[in-house]
Design goal:
3-stranded antiparallel sheet, alpha+beta, 34% helix, 4 helices, 4-stranded mixed sheet, 7 strands, 26% strand
Length: 155
């Protein structure tokens, strides 16, 4: 008998645009914005040809389980992740799932202790209000770096 459970993507509205103009979705069962944790805690994984940034804590929950992404029917947004335990032995399956649950509870408790909920909601609202647009060419010329001659000798 297989057992499955569903994780909800707290970063379903997050898109990261790389320097080479690729847009990557983020998935986290714990964090509502990528800035809530160190950038080194995010890892690029591939599901078929789809690149997805996933945080360390969610990856820990995913390890050893079969993963199936759930998408919004009208957009490309990843909304859920269905995790299925394929462990055949009942006792081994229960131990594995209990470990995953305990890890999730511990992570959530650490987050509640570390993050001030009001500040997180304020940060998330502020980040949602930011609109990113391409800078106009005039902005680049006026505010961009200028070329200067590098002296042959430093005084």
């Amino acid at each position: 008998m297989t057992q499955s459970f569903l994780l909800t993507n707290l970063c379903s509205k997050v898109r990261i645009k790389t320097a080479d103009k690729h847009v990557i979705q983020a998935f986290s069962a714990f964090y509502s914005h990528p800035a809530m944790i160190n950038e080194d805690a995010w890892h690029l994984i591939r599901s078929g040809t789809l690149p997805i940034l996933v945080d360390n804590d969610t990856i820990t929950i995913m390890k050893g389980l079969s993963c199936e992404w759930g998408f919004d029917a009208t957009t490309d947004a990843i909304l859920t992740l269905k995790l299925t335990c394929l462990e055949e032995e009942g006792e081994a399956r229960e131990v594995l799932l209990k470990e995953k649950l305990e890890y999730a509870k511990r992570t959530k408790a650490e987050m509640d202790h570390f993050f001030d909920r009001a500040k997180v909601e304020e940060l998330t609202a502020a980040m949602d209000a930011i609109s990113c647009s391409e800078p106009a060419d005039s902005d680049l010329l006026e505010n961009g770096p200028t070329l200067e001659r590098i002296p042959e000798e430093i005084e």
